[in-house]
Predict the structure.
Amino acid sequence: MEYLVGSPFRRRDEGLYFLAVMAGGLAVAMVDSSFNNFLAATWDISGLARSSLELPRELPGFLNAFVAALLAFLPGRRIGAFSFLLQALGIYLLASFSATFGHMTFWLFTYSLGLHLFLPLQQSIALELASSGAEGALLGKANALRNLAQIAGGAFVFIAFGFFKLSFAANFLLAALVFAAGALALFGMSRPVRDKNAEALVFKRRYGLFYILSILYGTRKQLFITFAPWVIVSVYHKPTSIMAALYFAGGIAGVLFQPFIGRAVDKRGERFMLGLEALLLIPVCFFYGFAKIIFPEAIAFIIVCLCYVADSLLLSFSVARSVWMKKIAEKPGDIAPTLAMGVSIDHIFSIAVALLAGLLWDKFGYQWVFLAGAGIAVINFIATRFVRVPDTSAVDPLTAEKTT
């Protein structure tokens, strides 16, 4: 969809988009910060049963491209609204209508399906809205607003449960209402003209490097999500309050720095930013694994905490991958399905690396997990050297209009 310069429709759509992103961040934080406590209090499940829930929680990530293809008759903004309604329905029924553990698992799958369906849409809708050359800035602003909303959601749960004894059912009902508000915001955006010739499922050799970068992103993301916190908990023996403080610190850092990261993508280019992320990840992985060996434990812990916050910011560099995808797209209709395919590929390898890294940790020690992470970062850096941006000084590939 194209807008006239200064169009009020663009400003209105951007405002509604930002509202939806913030609603998603707020509601997801309300769910994530209380979900494990809900499981423990409601179902009293074993560690094995808890780990088994990762399958219905992560499987929608793998299915993302195929579900998006089934819904391809709708424009992305309407699919986004549908994804928010799925999240609202799933989390409400999970708490209020789960007579058995199997029912709860099904509603968890429904919620996660909506959550994963919106992951690439948050980026593709932003790329539709952004002016040429300002894509990174808009994505960075959206990520910062989502971070701010997540901080607010975590604070709400802390206060509501700590001081007002809010029930899990009430918390999840409120989260469902917030998701519904996000759906209304997305549905209120103008309806773009859909390309009837656009392919529903895109997997092309042209985008091979994008898929490789998605694989590498999925593996490094899993190291951060799963094993970085586990180092702090199991190696440094820190309580939940420390993890909560680090989560808060990472969120504040995101609010402050993600807009700058987005603007840097526009100014310095995708190749530079993706390469910088890979290079910075190498010392982060090294200190995760070896700070305790090199330094006294108190200093080592401070270094690891700094690595945790830095790592959370480095994940934001992935906006460069999405912006680059827009620039190399053969046609506009390829962008959303290719981003969705990236999420599916990402999840295949992130699930696999979680299992392999767990075995590596148990057999050889946690240091080897992060040495492997540093190796992935080196491979990632090499892959970024092949990133090329088409020359758009003459023609914009998505508008086929001359640019000056």
Observations:
- The chain is about 80% helix and 0% strand.
